[in-house]
């Protein structure tokens, strides 16, 4: 419990989360071509890694991380999200990343815990 | 000797105390090795009481000041109901839709619609996050993965995948309890 910021409410910082997500994506699929055999492993690793890094920040949030990886083949993909929460404390960020052979869209949702 | 045990209720529940006193005028029968022959005067029971108010009465001020943290919801979020609602909305909306650039607006509209409909179920203290992805069916593979750090006793999610001739839609609804 000493890791958490006690007393004042801490608002979610999309910029910090965005940097964390980008580092995780780069670390896992940066410089790699799309592979049907490995894509399952990649999406699982990206969400897990992102969650671990977010929790390490020690902020009082519940996190939801969603990752979609799609091969570049000319097909289109649209994502949207809608949230019913406390806008002063909760927040989200979405990172779109791509390389030569695939797209990766990661969304992070952070819901504050009242301490 | 009759032995009575009395447990204190309320915030002091962790502290259990036993008060022994003689209540019968009959010849005492020893049932326990630890029972004392010396009767403990009744007034000693007051030393065990942590609350200073008279027995059986509650001070209204103290009750009002007590903060009741509800860490578990009274009514847990029903994923079945939410799934039915999502299915109904998505099937109706995308039945005649062909994939095009306008799917961007449709995905926003769908996520908003689903969130509004599930809000009407009136689950107290639940925050909702609705994620919708609409993609074109065109010889490509999409892999989607989610993970969360939350309280599994109260938080949950439901998902629905829809497909027609030209597009697919993935709708996920997360319900997070405000602790």
TrEMBL record, chain A:
GO (cellular component) term, any one: microtubule
Keywords assigned: Cell cycle, Cell division, Centromere, Chromosome, Cytoplasm, Cytoskeleton, Dynein, Kinetochore, Microtubule, Mitosis, Motor protein, Nitration, Nucleus, Transport
InterPro entries (alphabetical): Tctex-1-like, Tctex-1-like_sf
Signal peptide boundaries: none
Any Pfam family: Tctex-1
Localisation per UniProt entry: Chromosome, Centromere, Kinetochore; Cytoplasm, Cytoskeleton; Nucleus
GO biological process per UniProt: cell division; microtubule-based movement
Broad class of the protein's primary localization: nucleus
Highest taxon above the source species: Eukaryota
A molecular-function term among this protein's GO annotations: dynein intermediate chain binding
Family of this protein: Belongs to the dynein light chain Tctex-type family.
Subunit structure: Homodimer. The cytoplasmic dynein 1 complex consists of two catalytic heavy chains (HCs) and a number of non-catalytic subunits presented by intermediate chains (ICs), light intermediate chains (LICs) and light chains (LCs); the composition seems to vary in respect to the IC, LIC and LC composition. The heavy chain homodimer serves as a scaffold for the probable homodimeric assembly of the respective non-catalytic subunits. The ICs and LICs bind directly to the HC dimer and the LCs assemble on the IC dimer. DYNLT1 and DYNLT3 compete for association with dynein IC (DYNC1I1 or DYNC1I2).
Reported function: Acts as one of several non-catalytic accessory components of the cytoplasmic dynein 1 complex that are thought to be involved in linking dynein to cargos and to adapter proteins that regulate dynein function. Cytoplasmic dynein 1 acts as a motor for the intracellular retrograde motility of vesicles and organelles along microtubules. Probably binds BUB3 as part of transport cargo. Required for the efficient progression through mitosis.
Protein name according to UniProt: Dynein light chain Tctex-type 1
Gene: dynlt3
TrEMBL record, chain B:
Gene Ontology BP term (one): microtubule-based movement
CDD domains in the cross-refs: DLC-like_TCTEX1D
Basic and acidic residues composition bias: residue spans: 1-16
Residues covered by region (Disordered): 1-42
GO cellular component terms given for this protein: cytoplasm; cytoplasmic dynein complex
Family, as annotated: Belongs to the dynein light chain Tctex-type family.
Name of this protein: Dynein light chain Tctex-type 5-A
Organism: Cyprinus carpio (Common carp)
Biological classification of the source: Eukaryota, Metazoa, Chordata, Craniata, Vertebrata
Gene: LOC109047514
């Amino acid at each position: 419990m000493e890791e958490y910021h006690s007393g004042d409410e801490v608002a979610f910082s999309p910029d910090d989360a965005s940097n964390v997500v980008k580092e995780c994506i780069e670390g896992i699929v940066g410089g790699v071509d799309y592979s049907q055999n490995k894509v399952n492993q990649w999406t699982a690793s990206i969400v897990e890694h992102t969650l671990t890094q977010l929790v390490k920040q020690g902020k009082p949030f519940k996190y939801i991380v969603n990752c979609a990886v799609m091969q570049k083949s000319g097909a289109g993909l649209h994502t949207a999200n809608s949230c019913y929460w406390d806008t002063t404390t909760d927040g989200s960020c979405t990172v779109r990343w791509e390389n030569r052979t695939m797209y990766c869209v990661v969304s992070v949702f952070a819901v504050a815990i009242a301490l | 000797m009759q032995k009575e045990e009395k447990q204190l209720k309320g915030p002091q529940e962790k502290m259990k105390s036993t008060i022994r006193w003689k209540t019968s005028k009959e010849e005492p029968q020893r049932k326990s090795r630890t029972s004392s022959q010396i009767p403990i005067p009744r007034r000693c029971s007051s030393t065990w009481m942590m609350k200073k108010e008279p027995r059986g009465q509650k001070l209204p001020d103290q009750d009002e000041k007590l903060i009741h943290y509800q860490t578990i919801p009274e009514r847990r979020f029903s994923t079945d109901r939410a799934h039915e609602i999502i299915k109904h909305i998505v099937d109706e909306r995308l039945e005649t839709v062909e994939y095009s650039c306008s799917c961007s607006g449709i995905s926003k509209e769908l996520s908003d619609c689903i969130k509004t409909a599930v809000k009407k179920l009136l689950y107290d203290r639940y925050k909702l996050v609705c994620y919708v992805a609409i993609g074109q069916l065109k010889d490509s593979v999409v892999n989607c993965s989610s993970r969360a750090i939350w309280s599994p006793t109260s938080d949950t999610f439901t998902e629905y995948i829809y497909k027609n001739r030209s597009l697919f839609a993935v709708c996920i609804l997360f319900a997070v309890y405000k602790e």
